[in-house]
Amino acid sequence: MIGDFSKAIAQVFDRRFLGVLLKSLGLTIGLLAAITAVLFYFLSFIPAIDFTVPFTDWHITLLDEVAKTASIGLILIFSSFLMFPVATVFIGLFLDEIADAVEGRHYPHLPAPRRQSLREALTQGFEFMLLLIGANIVALIFYLILNVAAPLVFWLVNGYLLGREYFEIVAARRMDAREAKSLRNKHLMSTWAAGALIAIPLSIPVVNLIVPLIGVAAFVHLFHRKMARTA
How far is CA 136 from CA 40, 80, 152, 158, in A? Predict the structure, then answer.
């Protein structure tokens, strides 16, 4: 498994990898910037508040500025939280380019794979993004309760989701969805562990934008390794 990730990382500077990385980074940053701009636009409508509390001498001013400052902090946190799920969606659009680059270098004997339509890639990507966000919002309760163990829960939850999604979308290029799911269930612990390796750096800003690229490439190697053992 470590070998799968080592091969993926070694290929990061492949011209095709860099092309996908630049496109996905551009789209991710562009979308997050657009979301931020919209939020700032609505924040501009917060009215200035300046009044004296009844029956006291307390004079309160600039509450709008306090609200805006707090909102900016929330926007930054929100953007960091969304960074990886959004990047995952855009990486999914270029899945075939990543997988083709990996297979072209390491598995040149393979026949042409099944191609996903743009609609299929977008639908699958957005469904996974919503699942990822929803699962982490629910898991947030356990993060708060477990305190010190919260990182472990984060890695386990996201490791399972990432392992499931990445293995099945990579496998779907070479077999139908039912076979892909069956193969993933057969190798559940391996795919979960590989997903956890992807989940570990998710909390590192900027690095988490590159993780989906490396993840797809590593799972291409993992899939072909499992197929070779099955054959």
Answer: 25, 13, 13, 8
